[in-house]
Write a structure and sequence with these properties.
Number of helices: 11
Structural class: mainly alpha
Oligomer: single chain
Number of domains: 1
Number of strands: 0
Mean pLDDT: 76
Shape: globular
Strand content: under 5%
């Protein structure tokens, strides 16, 4: 029911026709292949430079007739393929510290095991409700005053090439920080949508890394935890493999484009993309509540 409107429900023939086409057209048709690959590219690009875009793939796969738990599992193969390539690019360009990435990735992976198990066994409608609650909460991170928090931070000097690509951390990796990354991993195992933002913010605020290197850490941490989440979904038979492999092609291409765009644009570009991703997701969630 629409607030402020008492007339008949609006009719959107285009959307109905599109959903019917996605639900009934064979996977081998050029139209379906193009839509899946393009969506994979878009999601791969946005997830590389910011995050939150995985929700787009959920919407597509559910429109194709998949339950949300299968849509959730199907995205993971493309995610893994994309971030393996991304990590190689960030490492090659000198922005990925593998030691720090491993320290972050291991606790995230531990949490991901529990999160993926929850996502695999809970009923689909429960997952939808939980995701609807969790995703907008992340928008609060945008309003944290980073200048006050980082004002006393010792600035790293030199470029990635000068430091061998491993800018010094100004904050030690303590037990409570590991625990925080475990919690992030639980969320990431449950749903990949938005976990990249949490890893980036965690690396930025808790480890003292700049946004570009935090983004590189995100890529590698996802590589470490995703195989665990993927294995859980494989165990429960919740992956549509033909769609997953086609989707991964677009994911990899978008990830490569996003990696070079991040490196070329620097931290400012990433911050703008992160802000845009959070505002877009927040707007969609608010709009959905008033339009349903």
């Amino acid at each position: 029911m629409h607030i402020f409107y008492n007339g008949p429900e609006p009719y959107y023939p285009f959307m109905e026709n599109l959903i019917e086409y996605l639900h009934t057209a064979p996977l081998s048709s050029p139209g379906i292949l193009s839509i899946i690959i393009f969506t994979g590219f878009l999601v791969g690009f946005v997830n590389t430079v910011a995050g939150m875009a995985t929700a787009i793939s959920y919407a597509l796969f559910m429109a194709m007739g998949m339950p949300i738990n299968v849509a959730n599992g199907t995205t993971r193969f493309g995610v893994l393929s994309q971030f393996v390539v991304n990590s190689f690019i960030f490492k090659k360009k000198g922005y990925l510290n593998l030691q720090t990435g491993t320290k972050v990735g291991i606790p995230v992976a531990i949490g991901a095991l529990l999160g993926a198990e929850l996502a695999a066994v809970l009923r689909p409608h429960i997952i939808e409700v939980i995701m609807g609650i969790l995703l907008p909460v992340m928008a609060v991170l945008l309003f944290i005053d980073t200048k006050k928090i980082t004002g006393s931070r010792k600035k790293t000097s030199g470029t990635a090439a000068d430091t061998g690509g491993q800018a010094e951390n100004t904050k030690p990796f303590t037990g409570w920080k590991a625990a925080a990354f475990v919690l992030i991993g639980i969320y990431g195992g449950f749903t990949h949508a938005g976990v990249g933002l949490l890893i980036m913010f965690g690396s930025f605020f808790m480890l003292g890394l700049d946004m570009l290197r935090s983004n590189a850490i995100k890529q590698f941490a996802v590589v470490i935890y995703t195989p665990i989440a993927l294995a859980v979904f494989i165990w429960y038979g919740q992956i549509n493999w033909p769609v997953a492999m086609i989707y991964a092609v677009g994911n990899i291409a978008g990830g490569v484009a996003g990696s070079y765009a991040s490196i070329k644009g620097g931290a400012k570009f990433i911050k703008i993309c992160v802000a845009a991703a959070i505002f877009a997701m927040s707007f969609w969630l608010i709009y959905k509540q008033f339009s349903s």
